[in-house]
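Researcher: Here's a chain I'd like modeled. Treat it as a single chain, no partners, no ligands.
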Amino acid sequence: MSARRQWHQWTPRQALGTAGRPRRRLLRRLLICLVVAVIGLLGLGVGGIWWATDHYGDQVTRIPHAFPDGPRPESSDGNTFLLAGVDSRSARPTTGDDATADLWKVGAQRSDTLMLVHLDTGKHASYTVSIPRDSWVPIPGRGSAKINAAFSWGGPPLLIQTVEQLTGVRIDHFAVIDWHGFRSLTDAVGGVPITVRENSYDPQQGRHFKAGTRTMNGEEALSYVRQRHGLPGGELDRIKRQQQFLRALVGEIRGDVSITNPLKVDRMLEAITGTVSVDDRLSNSDLRDLVFGLRRLESADAYFTTAPIVRSDLINGQYVLILDRESLRRLCLAVVTGHPLGIGK
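Model: Modeled as a single isolated chain. Structure tokens:
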């Protein structure tokens, strides 16, 4: 047998038996890694879904014993959240606390923002009713006071009980959003476009806001949603700004869910999990179902309104808002039953 014949017979076998095997193994591993990465980012594979659910879900702080004992309103379709916005966990450096501080201590904190949010996964829509923190309402076992006092006096259970009694709607889940955390979330999505309707100056923050549309970074957005001094409507104008910001943020988050920039998606999800705390009844699988149920949610599908107000008043030397409670109950009932009357964009 000639040398050339021997080379042609030996070389393929040698290539497959020695050098070929490592190359095929390397190629197979690369393909597997690529497939797993795409599956995880698209959320199309069981393994990718469960890995992402546990990875990010485990980073969300859970709030124990959030719900009150005793009789409560009947459940409704969809999921109704009570969101309490606070910035005292990270806004008071004199206490030495930061964003990892205790969620609530008796008399230490009041909720700066209160929102009743109904998520309708069937319609891929969200409906939010903001309740001003200065609303004068009955607080079970405490008489009447501003609604944010309920969180200060009794934490999540008393706040939930107060809102359920006020609205007649059952709260399925409770969440706390840290407005300081939204600073990092805003930066993670590359800023949020906001239209400032008129010039204003906040003497408390020492900051000017000029009319016009621009993309705000986290620090600017935080100052914008916190301003109430220097605005004609005070607290009510601040609520409008918060609603405006959240709607714009939904649009930015929705636009960033793309496999073309997985690192940006990861930063965004990390910021979200560091911003929101939820009750311990909301499992990782519940979070996954919510995300998938609302994966088509656009900013145009986010509806906002504010609790109807009769007038402002002074009670015990405090500026308070008197709500139209009957109208509020009708509004909230309409929202959770799928007939959101009076909800605008």
